[in-house]
Amino acid sequence: MTALSHPLTYQVNLTSPKTLSAYCDDGGYQGARIALTQFSPEQAVEQVKASGLKGRGGAGFPTGMKWSFVPRKATKTENENTYLVCNADEMEPGTFKDRLLLEGVPHQLIEAMVIAAYAIGANKGYIFLRGEYHLAAQRITHALNEAKTANWLGDNIQGTGFNFELHLHTSAGRYICGEETALINALEGKRANPRAKPPFPQVAGLFGQPTIVNNVETLCNLPHIFRHGIEWYQSHAPESDAGTKIYGACGRVAKPGLWELPMGAPIGKVLNDCAGGMQSGLKLKGLLPGGASTDFLLPQHLDVPMDYDHVAKAGSRLGTGGLIVLDDKQCPVAMVLNLLRFFAQESCGWCTPCRDGTPWAVQLLEKIEQGKGQLADIDELYRLCDFMWIGKTHCALAPGAVEPLRSALNYFNDDFVQHIELHHCPYHHGERHG
Amino acid sequence: MADNQLTIYIDNVPVLVNANDNLLAGVLSNKFDLPYFCWHPAMGSVGACRQCAVTLFQDENDTRGRLAMACTTPVFDGMRISIKDLAASEFREQVIAAMMTNHPHDCPVCAEGGECHLQDMTVMTGHTKRQYSGEKRTFVNQDLGQFVGHEMNRCITCYRCVRFYHDYAGGQDFGVFGSKNQVYFGRHEDGQLESEFSGNLVEVCPTGVFTNKLFSEHYARKWDLQSAPSVCHLCSVGCNTSIGERYGSVRRVVNRYKHDINGYFLCDHGRYGIAHVNQQNRMTETKGIAASLPTGISRTDVLKSLAWMNGQSLIGIGSSRSSLEANALLKQLVGNEQFSAGFSNKAFELAKYHAHYFDANKSVNLHQIEQADCVFIVDEDISQTAPRMALSVRQALRNKGIKKAESMGIPQWQDSAVRTIAGEKKSPLFILSSQPSKLDQEAEQLLLGSHLMITEVLHQLIEQDVTAHHYCTFIKAFIHAWQHAKSPVFICGWQHQNIKAFTHTLACIEFLIALNANSRFVIVPPDANTLGQLTLLDGKTLTVQQAWHLAITNPDIAGVVVLENELNCLTEADRDALKHSGKKLLVIDHCHSELSHIADVVLPCAPISESHGHLVNYQGVIQHYFPALPTQRPVQENWQWLVLLAEAVTSSKSKWQGIKDFHQLHEQLATDIDNWSISTEELAKNIARETPRVSGRTAKSANQSVHEPKVTQSNDDGYRFSMEGGKASLDANMPYVWSPGWNSNQAISKYQRQVNDELIHKKDVKQVTIDYNPELFENSHQHTAERQLPIMLAWYCQQYQSQCIPEFQLLHQGNQLLVSNEWAQREHWQQGTWLELDIDFNVERKSIMAKVIIEPRFSGLHMALKLDEYCAGTAELNSASIASTSAIDKYLTAKEDQYQAALAEKQATLVRLKQKDQYIPIRLVAGGLDDA
Fold first, then answer.
1. Is residue B464 part of a domain?
2. Considering CB atoms only, which of B176, B180, B414 is closest to A344?
3. What mean pLDDT, rounded, does chain B reach?
4. B13-18, strands of its sheet edge to edge
5. Which of A345, B289, B628, B671 has minimal CB crowding within 10 Å?
6. Nearest-angstrom CA–CA distance, A23 and A29
7. Which residues of chain B neighbour A358 with C-beta distances below 8 Å?
8. At which of A233, A257, A291 does a domain end?
9. What does it do (chain A) (predicted)?
10. Is residue B73 part of a domain?
């Protein structure tokens, strides 16, 4: 594990993360120093654009392009500001990659945010942290203090004339805060409902001011891009999107965990080489490649490279890159029910399809799982999938809920029918699921 | 094709739409049916309910299209959409189906039934079958106080209530709680809704979550109401209302859309203040008239009993809460020299200045106020004296943010996006006042202090004196904002009746025009027809006190006729003096007052719900109101009594006998006002006051008789007491709003030229001019500044009639003395200290209890008194002392007794009204006393 092979994780220490000096000794804050001294803000944006870095939060939007939408003003009035927000509200079921970075190497994020803030012209930033990440909160707070003392935060950072104030905000805990405009509302003390777009946050975000919201992992790429350059960054995965990616696996695999690999590693490599394959006696039935809100893939998809385009071509989404694995002894209906309960619970309640559609799907899935379903309920579930699909809802939450449901209906239709015909769950007699 | 219009194709039909509109508004403007919930014409789009989905095609070759939410989609030239397309119509049906997973099956007991937007939209989408078999979500409801019922299980989560209450009207005590399908709209705990616009929740809610409590308690279905177009008589704004009646009692008031004034919203005073017509305090019997027959009095009886008036000289005292024509008739009856318009000595001074400075061309209506980009309010708490105007001011303050959004390409109707962009940006509001107001927290600059301070600030403002003193921040900021504004509006009023401050305030007008030629001015008078009274003033007009003393002292005068005026500016001694002088007192009113108790003759007249007339609002706009139900003998309309009095005085039959002569009366009276009477054309419309669906004419009195009642004779005022006649929509003055498929008030879009535009049958605005140009001289008498107590009244105490409404009495909070820090420190008063105050009110010296509230924003030595009783102007404090425990106990006990009495009164009224429903006269006879 070296800075060049595993840039994101080589400094990770989960038991005792590196202090500022230890972090610096191993190349820390070099990227920031290079960015602040050798690049103008505009050049820094161009550098990130050229690097090909795509957002690691799930949507895969090119980061540099997102930054370039921020209006630049030569002079700002007293009430004008540009904000940088780190989305550390990692609440996607089955996803825990940001936690690794937050707990294991907090200075990397701070360094990254100094670079991003400099590039977009932000003098204020917030880390919006999932409320349950208590340990991360402690470690970030400590690192923030260290960074302030060492003048990596505050006024006239390292004598460059750049000012940046960074605050930690711990979330009250809603999945929807992963949606950047809902996050901004929550940060303002409002209800965490996604906002109408336009205006996009890059133009009018936090307190009506230009705002960039980036995911933890996305930001953590920045120090290395500036330290080692674009060519190095793109060399990791010449066939795929640039850089490295933290992949994960959970479910009944032999060794659940997280691994930093070059972007575009095949699913089979993550599942079999990294996670050691299925636990003994179990067979792979299907998997969600990038968190709960992605479509199921099947054993036949193990060769698919895990990058944005290839996973999409296979009928799902890369999402967060965290596999949720379903084995042959677990009930897919129960799994989907569990996921839909989560989405129904986390619906912000703003638009009708999501607010009233997800609980309706839960009600039907409960009926089926309890053996009280009818074949017509499957049709109704299909109708609900259509009802909650993209273009019909206010944000992406409900379509995200539809993805595992509709793919389960397609791939595991027999299981649904069996529940109905047998009037009970066929998995229920075996090992207890969940 | 106008510049701002473009063509879109709806199911291949080309139509013109406003280029600045969203697609939903464009569709509705062209009278197509498209269901919606969260969008509201006044509140814009947020895209929550997803109900208004249509299919949007790329071009004429695109047959597939994609779904688009009409309310959040801007229109463009050549746009092609389909409402009928299967994908869109199925999706719309599914949205209803999803809402119905939780909506209960309680339509039969729901007060919204029959005028429910959700019912209408459900039918419109074709959703006719229940699909959901699971459990329904339930909520615990809240007690939201006197006016608004709460039934959260019916909620379809469209967010309109909170968007109105919080976002639009600035209410802080109502919000949205919870998430997922457990979103809850209400208060943080049970309690009276604090906003003076709470009643609009009833009209804004598309279903029956929020209902009108008073209406629900004495309920009738919308289709069984007999309604008439009316005008609110409770303040000077002149909001248009529709009064609904059944079985001889008024059931409710709802908003009647008026583009230039109230738009879609009323204040609670206007909505619930009508309750006074149903109270025990109503006068329904004559006094001093001997009946010759057991069936009641006749015209002859009246003329015989009033024979003493023949050839006599009388004093007439009118009122600004009575109609323009009744006052004019009274003036004609008694002659110019013996007429008082009902203004006290103090009020008459204000009236003179008002008349002098009033300029209809420089005044603005509420719609125009909403376009203002800078507002300056001086010493008038419009949030209580003219609440609907305050609501418009709130909208004006959004203009800065709206402008910023427009510069970013976001149109005004994208409500949530505009609010996001606006952030805390507000157009500047400046308030200079002797008392706090609900608008204060919106003000960029705020100065609260004595009237002396106000005159000082205004003086320095006119001098542009920005040298170092502590008003200079205000003055500097104000002058800068006013100069740079495109449409600045200045608002002041009569509230505290402080002539010195008032004259200084009005003296600003010239300066403000010099500062900015686009300046517009609003002077808020106290009553619904104060401006009408100003048109009746001439050099001979008397004040109330002058008229009263003339009656006492002049031997040639036989008596005093008082028209709908409780004359609270007279002292008890004044009233006794008249009694002792032997002069007769004749009172025409619809509710009892101290005056009616001592009157020799009482003639009960009809309140607004049963009569015709015109009111002139603050802007000079003349508006006509019509009765929702006919009067019941011996009650007569005020003008009918006055016609009869004229006959008694002159011994000749008046030429005005029936309402059909009424329009001639107008012509007679209003010599300087062209053509504001009802035209023959309008009369011929004969619009039905009852709905075409009234529960079967033969069945509507079936609780008493299965025989079909005789239809109350129409009195040729252009409306009929019947389900037969012209359609409600034939005239701009619609008795009710209804359109096929649209049973709720949302039907209004069918009668607007375009969404949010004027009504199709718009009437020309008729505005008065005031020729009266009195000599102005400054009243030298002033109270000692620091002893002055501006009186603060909540909206429910603003009118004499409103006092008797038990629901309003239940809102009383006890007297409060607001004091500045300086005062509190000097007197060692603490927050909450009870004081016994010796106060000089305008007419009497009284001792009252009040609780100290420290108002840190008051400058200098300043106090204001918040009272629970109707009382105008400013009082003077003689002394204040810390109250004894026993005095406090006594006061609190009395308050509690009043509260209990109000509760009992409320119940008693309800019982009485419900009983009355069972014994209504089968024949309600409209017209004169001899028509029986």
1. yes
2. B180
3. 91
4. B13-18, B5-10, B79-82, B53-57, B66-69
5. B671
6. 8
7. 180
8. A233
9. NDH-1 shuttles electrons from NADH, via FMN and iron-sulfur (Fe-S) centers, to quinones in the respiratory chain.
10. yes
Domain containing A264 — which CATH number?
A: 3.10.20.600
pTM of the model: 0.95
Count of structural domains within chain A:
3
Give the gap in angstroms from C-alpha A363 to the nearest C-alpha of chain B.
6
Out of A327, A348, A380, a domain closes at: A327
C-alpha A373/C-alpha A363 separation (Å) is 10
Q: Is residue B285 part of a domain?
A: no
Whole-angstrom CA distances from B229 to A141, A390, B273, B689, B731 are: 66, 47, 16, 9, 10
Q: pLDDT digit string (tens) for B400-437?
A: 999 999 999 999 999 999 999 998 889 999 999 999 99
| Together in a domain, A165 and A225 | yes
Burial class of residue B483 (count of CB atoms within 10 Å of its CB; 0-12, 13-18, 19+): exposed
Domain that holds residue A303: 236-327
Q: Residue A361: give its domain's CATH number.
A: 1.20.1440.230
Structure tokens at B503: 């004259």
CB contact under 8 A, B47 and A204: no
Say which residues have a Cβ less than 8 Å from residue B222's Cβ, sequence separation at least 6.
B114, B115, B244, B691, B736, B743
Map tokens 């318009």 to a residue: B341
When CB atoms are compared, the residue of A208, A367, A392 closest to B423 is A208
User: Which chain B residues are within 8 Å of A380, Cβ to Cβ?
Assistant: 131
Check whether residue A218 and residue A250 sit in a common domain.
no
Cis peptide before B634 (omega within 30 of 0): yes
Phi–psi pair at B795, nearest 5 degrees: -55, -35
Chain A residue closest in CA terms to B406: A199
The DSSP bridge partners found for residue B287 are B602
Q: A291, A93 in Cβ contact below 8 A?
A: yes
Across the interface, whether the CB atoms of A196 and B95 are under 8 A apart is answered no
From residue B877, give the alpha-carbon distance in Å to each of B572, B765, B783, B804, B864: 21, 45, 10, 27, 10
In this structure, chain B runs to a length of 932
Q: Which two tokens stand for residue A315?
A: 């009928």
* Span B467-521, pLDDT tens digits: 867 799 999 999 999 999 999 999 999 999 999 999 999 999 999 999 999 999 9
- Residue B34 and residue B53 in contact, taking contact as beta carbons nearer than 8 Å: no
Domain residues for B448?
Answer: 350-531
Q: How many C-alpha atoms does A137 have within 13 Å on its Cβ side? A: 12
How far apart, in Å, are the Cα atoms of A73 and each of A40, A157, B402?
A: 14, 21, 21
What tokens appear for A160 in the block? 């460059």
Pick the last residue of a domain from B531, B555, B580: B531
Q: Are residues A127 and A227 in the same domain?
A: yes
CA distance B68 to B88: 9
**CA–CA dist B229, B243 (Å, integer):** 7
SS3 content of chain B, % helix, strand, coil (to 5): 35, 20, 45
Q: What's the start-to-end Cα distance of chain B, in Å?
A: 58
C-alpha–C-alpha distance, residues A419 and A426, integer Å: 6
- Looking at the structure, do residues A287 and A353 belong to the same domain, yes or no? no
Its ipTM equals 0.95
Asked whether residue A361 is assigned to any structural domain, the reply reads yes
**What CATH number should be reported for the domain holding residue B506?**
3.40.228.10
Total domains in the fold of chain B: 3
A338 and A323 inside one domain: no
CATH number at residue B815: 2.40.40.20
Q: Is residue B74 part of a domain?
A: yes
Phi then psi dihedrals of residue B324, to 5 deg: -60, -45
Instruction: Please answer whether residues B883 and B795 qualify as being in contact, where contact means their C-beta atoms are separated by less than 8 angstroms.
Output: no
Tokens of B144: 């939201």
DSSP-based three-state secondary structure for B345: helix
The distance of B476 to chain A (nearest Cα, Å) reads: 19
Neighbour order of strands in the sheet with B520-524: B445-448, B429-433, B374-378, B488-493, B520-524
**Which tokens belong to B586?**
């004749």
